[in-house]
Amino acid sequence: MASTVFKSLTDTTFDSVEGYRKAAEKAESPSLKQALTQRCQQREQTLQQMNAELQRQGDELVTKGTVSGELHQLWMGITDMFENGDEAATERVEEGEDYIKGKFESALKSDALDVQERAIVEQCYNEICEGERFADMLEHQYD
């Protein structure tokens, strides 16, 4: 069975995929829509890696959001912000990326992951950092 921390990271990653998907649907600018769709696809690959580890350990795959999860709530706020334009929404995308990056960093600093989980989280952390850089770039572009 996977650790609670690994499962929580996988849930958060799923919420992030869903958030990007909804944000891309609501974006007004075609270039922003395309950029968000690309990030969504990259985050989906991260989720697949994490789900593969859950499957290897005999756990259920994460195929739905956490409803109560902090990131889920943050992403719902992001998609609502598109009502106020792309600029407001990109600020919230950055908040979501800062949140998930912090959660991955905390997990890597803890002793809660087994060796295999740690290896997967370290691999996935690179994509999470790319997402955070992407969000910073968006915020500067739309600021």
From TrEMBL:
<protein>
    <submittedName>
        <fullName>PA2169 family four-helix-bundle protein</fullName>
    </submittedName>
</protein>
<dbReference type="InterPro" id="IPR012347">
    <property type="entry name" value="Ferritin-like"/>
</dbReference>
<dbReference type="InterPro" id="IPR019052">
    <property type="entry name" value="DUF2383"/>
</dbReference>
<dbReference type="InterPro" id="IPR011971">
    <property type="entry name" value="CHP02284"/>
</dbReference>
<dbReference type="Pfam" id="PF09537">
    <property type="entry name" value="DUF2383"/>
</dbReference>
<feature type="domain" description="DUF2383">
    <location>
        <begin position="2"/>
        <end position="109"/>
    </location>
</feature>
<keyword id="KW-0175">Coiled coil</keyword>
<feature type="coiled-coil region">
    <location>
        <begin position="33"/>
        <end position="60"/>
    </location>
</feature>
